[in-house]
Write a structure and sequence with these properties.
single chain; alpha+beta; Arc Repressor Mutant, subunit A; three-stranded mixed beta sheet; two-stranded antiparallel sheet; 14% strand; globular; binds zinc ion
Length: 138
């Protein structure tokens, strides 16, 4: 689905943010891909068209989008953040070798038993991660 700049500006404004040209470009890039890119990957794509855009600015804008519920962050503890234009709850497979992230749908959740003595306030079962090795890395 192609998002026009007007659509994106509306989406950004509804989230309570100012739709700057940079924000629109960052969101458009994220929504156009399914590889759950990090800020560095978005930067590589946008730097020729937006020479004034730094990787840090992209990162901060992606984090701002996450805080406002426009996109989601994939909680990858060993890596820099990766971002997902699809803000609906779904699960991910992460290849431990090439760091590829693939959407998983229709995964049923395991019946997790919390060990006694541990205080876990909340388990975020709307974003479960399965780690493994993809076919290309095998
Ligand atoms: Zn892989
Ligand atoms: Zn995803």
């Amino acid at each position: 689905m192609e998002n026009t700049n007007t659509d994106l500006a509306v989406q950004i404004r509804i989230a309570g943010l100012k739709p700057t040209a940079q924000r629109i470009a960052i969101l458009k890039e994220l929504l156009s891909r399914t590889d759950h890119p990090g800020a560095d990957m978005v930067y590589k794509k946008l730097k020729s068209d937006y020479p004034s855009l730094s990787m840090n600015t992209i990162y901060l804008n992606l984090e701002t989008f996450v805080r406002h519920g426009v996109i989601q962050r994939i909680n990858n503890l060993t890596n820099l953040g990766r971002f997902d234009g699809n803000s609906a709850p779904h699960h991910h497979f992460i290849c431990v070798k090439c760091k590829k992230i693939i959407d998983l749908h229709g995964v049923s959740l395991p019946d997790v038993e919390i060990p006694e003595g541990f205080d876990i306030a909340n388990i975020f079962t709307d974003q479960m991660q399965l780690n493994g090795v993809c076919l290309e890395c095998n």
